[in-house]
Design goal:
The complex is a heterodimer of chains A (about 120) and B (about 110). Chain A has no helices and eleven strands. Chain A has strands spanning about 5, 10-15, 20-25, 30-40, 45-50, 55-60, 65-75, 75-80, 90-95, 105, 110-115. With about 110 residues, chain B is mainly β. The chains are: A mainly beta (about 120), B mainly beta (about 110).
Chain lengths: ~120, ~110
């Protein structure tokens, strides 16, 4: 199966700063990656679909200027939380879907705490 | 639009007892169905998936799930739970031609000795 590496696993930042989260597909080329957000004791909500070489597709209600996604290569997608505020504190998870398998592999997640 | 319902927010079972976690989906055609498990602070691990064919699907860690079209259900079962099964379980659905996974709200499983 696919192997996905997400980094960092946790980060604490000051309010107003930006934080970058990386998602790497280690064993196959991912033209599409997905970013989810999970609040404590809640389900995962899809934020955006990251497309290699083109703009990300954001879900309704997700601020694209707040959550910048870059998918510059077939193995790396990044999510940058800009001008972070305490309400952005959450668990962010990426996933990939290897072609032909229709199975989704998830990264280990990033716990973001904004103070 | 596709949707997933997990009616049970929290379930507690004794170690060694059987388990069934419920999942109902709403979608016009046959969906692709998944069960994931998440330990605290961790990502999601795929337990099993159903695309077509045999409606009883075997997964990892001794789990199985049965797809019942007439009931729009995909319940997860395990004959004998272990303390290490304590986690959050998510049912998810994706429709053909649409890569977006839709998750249920999750069921938290607690195991008591």
């Amino acid at each position: 199966g696919a192997v996905v590496s997400q980094h960092p696993s946790w980060v604490i930042c000051k309010s107003g700063t930006s934080v970058k989260i990386e998602c790497r597909s280690l064993d196959f080329q991912a033209t599409t990656m997905f970013w989810y957000r999970q609040f404590p004791k809640q389900s995962l909500m899809l934020m955006a679909t990251s497309n290699e070489g083109s703009k990300a597709t954001y879900e309704q209600g997700v601020e694209k200027d707040k959550f910048l996604i870059n998918h510059a290569s077939l193995t790396l997608s990044t999510l940058t939380v800009t001008s972070a505020h305490p309400e952005d504190s959450s668990f962010y998870i990426c996933s990939v879907s290897p072609p032909g398998l229709y199975g989704y592999t998830f990264g280990s997640g990033t716990r973001l705490t904004v103070v | 639009a596709q949707s997933v319902t997990q009616p049970d927010i929290h379930i507690t079972v004794s170690e060694g007892a059987s388990l069934e976690l419920r999942c109902n989906y709403s979608y016009g055609a046959t969906p692709y169905l998944f069960w994931y498990v998440q330990s605290p602070g961790q990502g999601l691990q795929l337990l099993l998936k159903y695309f077509s064919g045999d409606t009883l699907v075997q997964g990892i860690k001794g789990f199985e799930a049965e797809f019942k079209r007439s009931q729009s259900s995909f319940n997860l079962r395990k004959p004998s739970v272990h303390w290490s099964d304590a986690a959050e379980y998510f049912c998810a659905v994706v429709s053909f031609g649409n890569e977006k996974l839709t998750f249920g709200t999750g069921t938290r499983l607690t195991i008591i000795p």
